[in-house]
Every structure is written in structure tokens, then in C-alpha cells.
């Protein structure tokens, strides 16, 4: 009976994933690449990957890290620096005589390298930082993210990073896969999230959850705390780096100053809305977040007249105010978020994931 | 050598003093609630905006006290609405709530000001220039350290000598027991936020005399630095926060003098990490042992 159920489950989930991909592909074919719904799907998918990578740390391992924007920046810059075509380098690096990097690689190896560079940064930063706990870890990772942002704009390494000037003309979603941008984004993000899911359901994943629920008990059970924390930190940053590279592909141009701590806060709030410790929750919350902020709540930003009557309050910026109030309501009154610690595919079976309570 | 460094030292002292006034709010709140109040930097920014709008209609003698009053009200409301309902929740939930409040305040300020930088009013008296030796500087350079020192001494007296100060110390040592002893912890916590916000408002009046433009995100960086100062000085210790802030303010300006402006922010965070690793209790912090 159990076995049959498991098989059915597998077939159903494969079918569901296939359906999502076909739906995403069809949406772009019907609406065109420049439509709002396609923009939301692109950006939502990128944010989904980044949110899941953050959830791996904050939700599954219990490491409250606020360094995500820094690792995204490293990934995005690595990708852009490696893929700007040779012919365009002189124009992009006009203040730095064409820059140091005098070769170009394809976008796929560049995506992988973007993740790898972010992971190397994480490994180095993790050595000192992961010895800290709780809110001290949060503030130290936040600090490192700010250091990365400052150093990238340092003039002396300008030939590498173009200082505080824009990086542009690297391959973007539209130039790599014209007409299939959504499918491409979904594929990359899907593979990455799939890998994270495999990790979470492995022995390592269970060790991460053990550390989250009770560090001291986990250590007593023979889990090497530092080793596992370092592993979660590096893997999370690897995917944050890929997410950053995808964000660069989505945006079309890149500047270090957009990777502020408020970006990390946004992603953290997505994770909280989705449920700390739920991968599907983070994905759902990402699409909801992007759809509301880019699309559904847009009308709040434009002054509207109904007949002679001017609707009060509607003005640029009001959307974000409404939005942050909604977020505060979730944070205060629905602390478990949309999914809590459950996954979408666990809902039907009435099975509840254990271990939802985190210690302070 | 000294003559070339003197202007930078002079510039560092008031910056440190202004960080100190923000850091007081962090260190007191952390001492009692064990919460990094991420919204504190935004309350500091809000004080800047209150001043911008109030001074358009009122003379400084009225607008400064009103600014402090409004900032205090804001700090009070934030605590009651966003932190009080989470009193028994895990600590991380309160921290997430603080981040949410910061996000909300920044968006709200953006909406209300139209996202444009606002010119901070020139306060007669504070912005005038005077000469010290070979260096020229603003009056605020002299006023800030004196005022900061005075306020810090007053606060230390308040905590050491008064009844509410004793209650604050009791709550910071043991939350639950102090409740059993008849201390109304909600009042004590509100009082802590009121003092912290008032200090942030005074700090912002001094800070913006040098920076002139107020934008919705301007408080984020000084806020983080003030928190580092609070950790450096030993979280919970008010004199510690002041000394930590002065050291950070001066080093930052010396780094700028060395031509490494890109690293002046990085230095602060590097310092934070070194302090947390080498001496997590800071310069004057009390040692706590972790209970299993």
C-alpha cells in the first residue's frame, strides 16, 4: 500500500512539475516577452531560488544570516565580468583601459563559476563568522555583505569590477533565449531548487534540522557543528551566487549599489511569509511578492479620479507602504507564514512535518 | 604631521558623538529585550524629517523640542505595536519584526516625501564656523562632544540612582523574576524606547548639521555603525557605547585621511567581527554564561 502510494506520488509530482513548465512556456508564447506576466514569472523565479537558498540557512539550519545580498553581488559580478563580449569590453571599461579580464566564456560555465566564486567567499567568511551565534551572526554577515559592496566599488580594483560604474552588454535572458526566457529561467531555477530539496532530504539535511532544533543535543549525537554549519553556509551562498547571476541576466545591467541590505531584508521577509523551513512556501511567497509589488498593487501608485472625486492617498510609493503593512501583519499575527514548516506535497496526506519550533 | 591630522581628528569627534547618541538607544534596548532594534536607524531618519517639516513653520526653539517629542512618540508606538505582541515569541521573531518595521518606515518616508532628498534647515549657532589652532570647524564640532558627555552622565545617573533606573537594571538581569517582584515591565520597556528615541532625535539634529540632505535611507548606515559601537563598548553599557562610538568615529575619519575612503565603512564591520571573536562582551560588557 505504502509503495503504491509512493509511486503515485512520484508520478503526480513529475506531472505537476511538467505542467508548471509547460504553463510557463505557453504564457510567454501567448503574451510575448515584454508583457507584465512574463516579467513577473522571470523575476519571481529568480527570487524563488534566492529565497530558497536563504531558507536553507535561516529556516532549515537555524543560522540567522543576513549576508544574502553580498553573495548575490559576488555571483552577479562574476557572471557579468566573465561574459562581457571582447568587442564590448573597451566601451564598458572605458575608464579602466578595457579592464584586466581579456577573455570571454559562455553563459552556462559563467553561471556555475558565479556560484563557485560566491561559495569560496562564503567559505572564507564562514571561518570566523560561523563561530558567532544568533543575532551576532546576523549582524556580522550583514557587515560582511556591506564590506563586499564597498570593496567592489573600490577604484584600485576598477579594472576588474568597473568601480562604481555600470556593468552591461553581457548576455541577458532576452539575448540568450529570445522568446523562451521564462522556460530558461524556470529550468535553471528548477534544477537548483531540486538539488536543494535533495540535500534537505539527505542525511546532511536531517543534521541541519537537528542543529536548528537543538544545537547542544545535535552535538551530543555526534554531529560536527562547525562542519555542518560551514557546509550549509557555503551551499546556500553557491545558490545565492547563481541567483545573483540570474538577477543580472534579468536586469540587463548591474551596479553594486543596488545590492543593499534592504535587498536582504526583502528576501528574508519573503522567506518569513512563505514559512521558515518550507521550500514550497518560499517559492509561492516569491511569486506572490513579485506579482504584488510589480503588478497587482501598481494601481496604488497612480493618482486616480473617479468622476470628479480624486481617490485619496494614491500616489507614487503608496504601493510599498500597503505592502509593508501587509508584511507586518503576517510577521505579527501569522508567524508561521503561508506554509509553516510543511511542504505543498505534504498537505494532502495530512502528514505534518515535525520540529516547527525554533529556539531563540 | 599633527597639523595635517588635526582636521580629521576634529571631524571624527563629533561624528563619534553623534554615533554615541544613536548607540545609546541600541545598547539600552538590547540590554533589556536582547533585541537588535533594526528600526532604530529609521527612527533617527524620521527625526531628521520631522525637523525638516517643523522648521519650515516654527523657530528652532520650538521645532527642536517638538521634533524630540514626535520621535519619542514614534519610538513608543513602534514598541507597542510591533514588539510588545511578541514578548513571549522566540527572539528571532522579534528581530524579524524589527526588520519589518525598518522596511515599513523606509517605505512610508519614501511615500510621504516623494522620494526626494530634503534640505535640512540651517540651525543658527550650530552651523557657524570657528577656528581652533590652524583648523576651521563648525560650532557643532564643539557642542556635540560636550552635549554627548553631559547626556551620557545624566543617563548613567538615571540608571544608577533613580527608581525607574533600578527597575531597568532588574528587568535586564531577569525578565520574569522582576515581573514577580512587582515591576511593570511594559512601562519599563516603553521608557527605555522613549529615552533611546529622544537620544536619536538629539543625535539627528547634530548629525544633519554636517550632512544637510535627508533621504529615507540615510539612517541605515549610521544606525548599523552605532550598533557596532554599542557592541564594541559592551552591549548594555552606556559609557561603553560612547567610547566605542568615539573610537569608531575617529578611526573612520583617519582612514579617510589615509585616502582609503572606500574602506571607512568596511573598517567598522571588520572591527565588529574582530571584537565579537576576540572579546564578545566588548570593552565594558558583563560576562554572561550560556545556560543549557
Describe this structure as you would to a colleague.
The complex is a heterodimer of chains A (360) and B (292). By secondary structure, chain A is mainly alpha-helical. Chain A has a single domain (34-346), classed as ABC transporter involved in vitamin B12 uptake, BtuC. Chain A contains 15 helices and 4 strands. In chain A, strands 1-2 form a two-stranded antiparallel sheet. In chain A, β3 and β4 form a beta hairpin. In chain A, α5 (107-129) runs antiparallel to α12. Chain A is globular, with a radius of gyration of 21 Å. Chain A starts with a helix and ends in a 27-residue tail after the last helix. In chain A, 45% of the residues are buried. Residues 350-360 of chain A have low confidence and may be disordered. Chain B is mainly alpha-helical and 292 residues long. Chain B has 2 domains: 25-213, no CATH class; 219-287. Helix content of chain B is 72%, strand content 4%. Chain B is built from 11 helices and 4 strands, in the order ααααβββααααβααα. In chain B, the strands form 2 sheets. Chain B has a two-stranded antiparallel sheet. In chain B, β2 and β3 (135-138) form a beta hairpin. In chain B, α1 runs antiparallel to α10 and α3 (60-83) packs across α8. The model of chain B has no long low-confidence stretch (mean pLDDT 87). The interface between A and B is large, with 48 and 47 residues.
Amino acid at each position: 500500500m505504502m509503495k503504491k502510494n509512493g509511486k503515485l506520488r512520484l508520478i503526480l509530482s513529475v506531472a505537476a512539475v511538467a505542467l508548471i513548465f509547460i504553463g510557463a512556456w505557453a504564457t510567454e508564447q501567448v503574451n510575448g516577452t515584454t508583457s507584465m506576466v512574463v516579467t513577473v514569472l522571470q523575476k519571481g523565479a529568480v527570487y524563488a531560488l534566492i529565497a530558497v537558498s536563504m531558507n536553507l540557512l535561516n529556516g532549515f539550519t537555524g543560522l540567522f544570516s543576513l549576508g544574502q545580498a553580498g553573495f548575490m553581488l559576488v555571483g552577479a559580478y562574476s557572471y557579468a565580468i566573465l561574459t562581457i563580449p571582447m568587442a564590448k569590453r573597451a566601451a564598458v571599461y572605458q575608464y579602466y583601459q578595457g579592464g584586466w579580464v581579456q577573455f570571454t566564456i559562455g553563459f552556462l560555465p559563467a553561471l556555475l563559476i558565479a556560484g563557485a566564486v560566491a561559495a569560496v567567499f562564503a567559505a572564507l567568511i564562514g571561518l570566523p563568522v560561523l563561530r558567532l551565534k544568533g543575532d551576532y551572526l546576523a549582524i556580522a554577515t550583514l557587515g560582511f555583505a556591506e564590506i563586499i559592496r564597498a570593496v567592489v566599488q573600490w577604484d584600485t580594483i576598477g579594472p576588474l569590477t568597473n568601480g562604481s560604474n555600470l556593468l552591461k552588454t553581457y548576455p541577458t535572458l532576452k539575448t540568450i533565449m529570445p522568446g523562451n526566457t521564462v522556460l530558461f529561467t524556470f529550468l535553471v531555477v528548477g534544477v537548483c531548487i531540486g538539488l536543494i530539496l535533495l540535500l534537505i532530504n539527505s542525511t546532511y539535511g536531517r543534521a541541519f534540522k537537528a542543529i536548528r532544533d537543538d544545537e547542544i543535543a545535535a552535538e551530543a549525537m555526534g554531529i560536527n557543528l562547525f562542519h555542518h554549519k560551514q557546509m550549509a553556509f557555503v551551499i546556500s551562498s553557491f545558490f545565492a551566487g547563481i541567483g545573483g547571476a540570474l538577477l543580472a541576466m534579468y536586469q540587463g545591467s548591474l551596479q553594486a549599489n543596488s545590492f543593499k541590505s534592504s535587498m536582504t531584508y526583502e528576501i528574508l521577509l519573503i522567506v518569513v511569509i512563505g514559512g521558515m523551513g518550507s521550500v514550497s512556501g518560499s517559492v509561492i511567497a516569491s511569486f506572490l511578492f513579485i506579482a504584488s509589488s510589480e503588478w497587482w498593487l501598481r494601481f496604488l501608485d497612480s493618482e486616480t479620479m473617479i468622476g470628479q472625486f480624486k481617490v485619496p492617498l494614491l500616489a507614487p510609493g503608496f504601493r510599498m507602504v500597503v505592502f509593508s503593512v501587509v508584511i507586518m501583519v503576517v510577521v505579527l499575527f501569522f508567524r508561521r507564514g503561508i506554509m509553516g514548516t510543511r511542504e505543498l506535497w505534504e498537505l494532502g496526506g495530512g502528514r505534518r512535518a515535525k520540529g516547527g519550533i525554533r529556539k531563540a | 604631521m599633527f597639523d595635517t591630522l588635526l582636521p580629521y581628528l576634529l571631524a571624527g569627534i563629533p561624528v563619534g558623538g553623534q554615533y554615541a547618541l544613536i548607540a545609546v538607544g541600541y545598547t539600552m534596548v538590547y540590554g533589556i529585550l536582547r533585541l537588535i532594534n533594526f528600526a532604530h536607524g529609521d527612527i533617527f531618519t524620521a527625526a531628521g524629517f520631522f525637523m525638516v517639516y517643523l522648521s519650515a513653520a516654527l523657530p528652532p526653539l520650538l521645532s527642536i523640542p517638538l521634533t524630540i517629542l514626535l520621535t519619542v512618540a514614534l519610538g513608543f508606538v513602534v514598541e507597542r505595536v510591533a514588539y510588545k505582541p511578541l514578548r513571549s515569541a522566540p527572539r528571532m521573531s522579534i528581530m524579524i519584526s524589527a526588520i519589518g518595521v525598518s522596511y515599513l518606515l523606509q517605505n512610508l518616508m519614501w511615500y510621504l516625501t516623494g522620494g526626494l532628498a530634503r534640505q535640512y534647515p540651517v540651525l543658527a549657532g550650530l552651523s557657524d564656523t570657528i577656528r581652533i589652532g590652524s583648523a576651521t570647524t563648525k560650532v557643532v564640532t564643539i557642542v556635540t562632544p560636550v552635549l554627548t558627555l553631559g547626556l551620557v552622565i545624566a543617563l548613567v545617573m538615571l540608571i544608577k540612582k533613580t527608581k525607574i533606573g533600578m527597575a531597568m537594571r532588574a528587568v535586564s538581569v531577569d525578565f520574569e523574576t522582576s515581573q514577580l517582584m512587582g515591576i511593570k515591565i511594559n512601562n519599563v520597556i516603553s521608557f527605555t524606547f522613549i529615552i533611546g528615541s529622544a537620544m536619536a532625535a538629539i543625535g539627528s539634529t547634530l548629525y544633519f548639521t554636517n550632512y544637510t540632505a535627508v533621504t529615507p535611507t540615510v539612517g541605515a548606515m549610521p544606525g548599523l555603525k552605532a550598533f557596532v559601537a554599542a557592541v564594541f563598548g559592551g552591549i548594555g553599557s552606556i559609557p561603553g557605547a560612547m567610547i566605542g562610538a568615539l573610537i569608531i568615529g575617529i578611526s573612520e575619519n583617519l582612514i579617510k585621511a589615509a585616502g582609503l575612503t572606500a574602506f571607512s565603512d568596511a573598517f567598522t564591520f571588520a572591527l565588529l567581527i574582530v571584537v565579537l571573536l576576540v572579546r564578545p562582551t566588548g570593552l565594558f560588557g558583563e560576562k554572561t554564561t550560556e545556560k543549557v
